[in-house]
Amino acid sequence: MTPPRGPAARRSAERAGRAAEDAAAAWLAAQGWIILARRARGRRGEGAGEIDLVALDATGAAPVVVFVEVKARPTLAAALEAVTPAQRRRLALAAEGWLAAHPVHAGAGVRFDLVSVTPDGPPGHLRDAWRPEE
């Protein structure tokens, strides 16, 4: 059983999460990606979650809108384990809502990536980390 988390612990976790997102966004931008949105939400009230980063990966043959989940974890495997099936469903709903609100990107491919940020090394990046359930 995990210990209860008070307001101070939540604020600390919020700061750590924002710092990890900042690091991931800077790292992806250095790779040539365009950050389209941060902490994006889609379809409020329908169980959709928050997308840490929405980015355009234009480094390949065709542009791809990438919905990036960022985790501050010691390894990429630990980060992937932290993304539960329920969270994946919420992210897929949020992505669907974001795409509906931004039809200019409707023709691009779509992918869900994971970036793991550690305090002592470069971010780990898992492309196409999961696919939404159909």
UniProtKB/TrEMBL annotation:
<dbReference type="InterPro" id="IPR011335">
    <property type="entry name" value="Restrct_endonuc-II-like"/>
</dbReference>
<dbReference type="InterPro" id="IPR003509">
    <property type="entry name" value="UPF0102_YraN-like"/>
</dbReference>
<dbReference type="InterPro" id="IPR011856">
    <property type="entry name" value="tRNA_endonuc-like_dom_sf"/>
</dbReference>
<keyword id="KW-0255">Endonuclease</keyword>
<dbReference type="GO" id="GO:0004519">
    <property type="term" value="F:endonuclease activity"/>
</dbReference>
<keyword id="KW-0378">Hydrolase</keyword>
<comment type="similarity">
    <text>Belongs to the UPF0102 family.</text>
</comment>
<dbReference type="Pfam" id="PF02021">
    <property type="entry name" value="UPF0102"/>
</dbReference>
<dbReference type="GO" id="GO:0003676">
    <property type="term" value="F:nucleic acid binding"/>
</dbReference>
<keyword id="KW-0540">Nuclease</keyword>
<protein>
    <recommendedName>
        <fullName>UPF0102 protein GGD88_002640</fullName>
    </recommendedName>
</protein>
